[in-house]
Request: fold
Amino acid sequence: MQGLTYLVVAYVIVWVGLLAYLGVVMLRIRGVRTELAAVKELVREQQEKRS
Amino acid sequence: MIFFEQVIAILWKDIRYELRSKQMWAGMGLFALLVLVIFNFAFDLRVDNRAAVAPGALWVSFVFASMLGLGRTIAAEREKGSMDRLLLCPVDRKAIYLAKLLGNMLFIGVVEIVALPIFAALFNVPLLLGPLLPIVLLGTLGIAAVGTLFSAMAAATRARELLLPILVFPLIVPIVIAAVRATGTLMVPVSNEPPWLGLMVAFDVIFLSISMLTFQYIVEE
Amino acid sequence: MALARQDTNVKRRDASGPGQAERFPIVSMVLLALTFIGMMISIWMIFLYAPTDAIEGDAQRIFYFHLPSAIIGMLSLGIVALGGIVYLWKKDERWDWVARAAAELGTVFLTFALITGSIWGRTTWGTWWTWDARLTTTLILWFIYIGYLMLRSYMGRTPASARAGAVLAIIGLIDVPIIYESVNWWRTLHPQAVLPLGSSPQLPLEMLLTLVVAFITFTLLFSFLMVQLYQLEKMQTLAQQLRASVE
Reply:
């Protein structure tokens, strides 16, 4: 019976860890996307100023 | 043999530079001794466990002292900007690496030579300088071969004192194991011991050649 | 003036490519769907289909997640080193993105392998950790990954950083078998409890099948995450380049 507890604990850790990691990756991608958009806007502005 | 002339020229420059800073030498030697003293307290050395603990204490102090000494030359050169000038010279990168390696080995070696007799006295173990010498030499070469390469890497970052051991310690595990076991076998002969010296020779040859080949990628700007 | 404008124009065209067009990348959608289906099938197989091990009991089922993540985490170092070698050879930034992504995923998968392995060891061997050659090598490989990631984050997104990472990965890849052998030799002198690791000559067909399905699922998961991280690296590099062109 004790083996079952460890089994459940192991899979819970893996699942929670995996989902947390997936969430972190998604957040990072979203963050970079917004940053990229902001920087592109900056580049465009500067270009307009120049011309 | 222009290659070896270059190696010796760079090495000689480093040695003259190091001779001017005597505190560093004294500091490294003192550090190695202090590690030995701390080990003495940590393990409460007695007659029965001395042979088991002493080799480990010796090599831990050597490894720590090497980490302090390694990369000092390259870091100093980078700070003063003389590394860039050295790279501008038509010098083979392999020659630079070899000179730095020999310089590091020399400095670590001097500290080890000083620390060994004191280690023998403090831990009350026979010195056995003859058979111990090849082990110390091969072990130091292995640590320095990997360490010189990575010190050039770590010198380019802000956190080089922290980064160097983090990068080097995992990679020199075979050398540490082999050196400790080989030293231990000298104190208490064990039959049927794996060929530790062979392992160290193989490690040294492999990583010396790879480091020589890859050093150019690290110092290139 | 005109020259400068042309220069930024070229950069803009470069920049507008990957950001927009791959908002909904078909490859990662397919991979995600396949991973999800694989996960569902492997969960069913692990908990319901595979028979309970006669000796180890239910805890043996941890193995179906442990083994694939350990193997993929280790093979990841090969990808990091391969990316590094090709980068040194061709000077193509994209291979460095591959290497960085693989290093991060290798760390994640090895972390899972170490945690699940430790829990499994607690039930089967009665200890959380033993200095067996395989475990020790895995731990040291994990340290190498961490060192790689730290080095890369300290050095930033420069060609020097990419070259240093490549060298570290090559040295690490060559060192891992030597570490394994040395720990193996070191431990043979200290006979510990004989470990049943790998001593499963006749795995029942159901168990083997479950293991294969779990392995495929983890490979799919790895590929999916790899695509995501690659895109992430790409966008980060692009953002940095654009920012540098503005300032």
